[in-house]
Design a protein that fits this description.
The chain is an alpha/beta fold. It contains 9 helices and 10 strands. 41% of the residues lie in helices and 16% in strands. One of its GO terms (molecular function) is hydrolase activity.
């Protein structure tokens, strides 16, 4: 069933009329051959550690309205949420899994020789939920970004290779977490080069939704070295996010996330609700009306 049919058969009703398209890119795509795109809706999920739990709420809202993404990309925490969703896990199950496993809490991190911590809980959850360590085992196409610091380049993975290793690598925050050695190369958090991985799927889907969970606006005060370090890292990766943002047709960036740190995993329910509410707002005010307009145009075209 096509996207718009699924959308309007959803049990929830949208209010408001058709609006102008939100971006030149979407306007151009709508005037072109729709069949040239492999997928209707894609979603790119940014890194952001604990704040990435908001991605789960976004996916839940989209599912409720029958707008389930057909293709997914993710970086760091976005890669972890994205791979579980691509494997067929419901958003509620992903939230439950992250809360149960305490994925990034210190009790689930094992200190390795050399001063790094290892993401044992992440690897364990991947093995339990996605036993086959291969991208082909996923139910939906999925791409992730990892930083190859051996060669100093960003790499996009989604066709082949050890799925679990690359997901863990994309989640491996520099300096703190153990880098992953894969095929003689050293990989770390993909956010270093590509924190909102829109480029990898922008030409594969007609509508691309970007979800960025990092706040770059002004802050009132920074308390202590940890907040300063987090703020510095966030501002550094904004440079690559700025370019990726332009590739998306819709962008969700909840400002409320500025009140949460990268380590607030104990506030999972709050973060989930922020993502959910932000997505509902987008659907009602922007995405829904645009889709309604396209549906009307499609019906008029079929009549003519």
């Amino acid at each position: 069933m096509r996207l718009f049919d699924r959308f309007f058969k959803s049990r929830k009703q949208l209010k408001g009329g058709a609006e102008d398209l939100p971006s030149d890119r979407l306007e151009e795509k709508s005037n072109g051959d729709v069949s040239s795109y492999d997928y209707e809706v894609g979603i790119a999920l940014s890194g952001g550690s604990a704040r990435g739990i908001a991605h789960i709420g976004v996916l839940k809202a989209l599912d409720e309205y029958g707008i389930s993404p057909d293709i997914i990309s993710g970086t760091s925490m976005g890669a972890l949420v994205g791979v579980f969703y691509a494997a067929g896990l419901a958003p509620e199950r992903i939230l439950e899994l992250i809360k149960k496993e305490k994925i990034y809490s210190m009790v689930s991190l094992k200190l390795k020789q050399g001063g790094f911590f290892e993401l044992n809980a992440v690897r364990r959850a991947l093995k339990e939920e996605i036993p086959a360590n291969d991208f082909s085992a996923l139910k939906k196409p999925f791409y992730l970004s990892v930083a190859n610091i051996t060669d100093g380049v960003n790499e996009v993975k989604g066709e082949n290779g050890p799925l679990h290793d690359f997901v863990v690598a994309s989640c491996s925050v520099p300096v703190l977490l153990l880098p992953q050695e894969i095929d003689g190369k050293t990989y770390i958090d993909g956010g270093l080069f590509d924190n909102l991985p829109a480029a990898s799927i922008k030409d594969k889907c007609r509508i691309l939704i970007g979800v960025n969970v990092n706040y770059y606006g002004p802050v009132e005060k920074l308390n202590g070295i940890r907040e300063i370090a987090q703020r510095t890292f966030s501002l550094a990766i904004e440079q690559n996010v700025a370019e990726s943002r332009k590739m998306c047709d819709f962008v969700i960036e909840p400002e409320e996330l500025k009140d949460y740190t990268l380590l607030d995993f104990d506030k999972a329910d709050e973060l989930y609700n922020i993502g959910y509410n932000a997505a509902i707002k987008l659907i009602k005010e922007e995405l829904g009306p645009v889709m309604q307009k396209h549906r009307i145009e499609q019906e008029e075209g079929s009549v003519n």
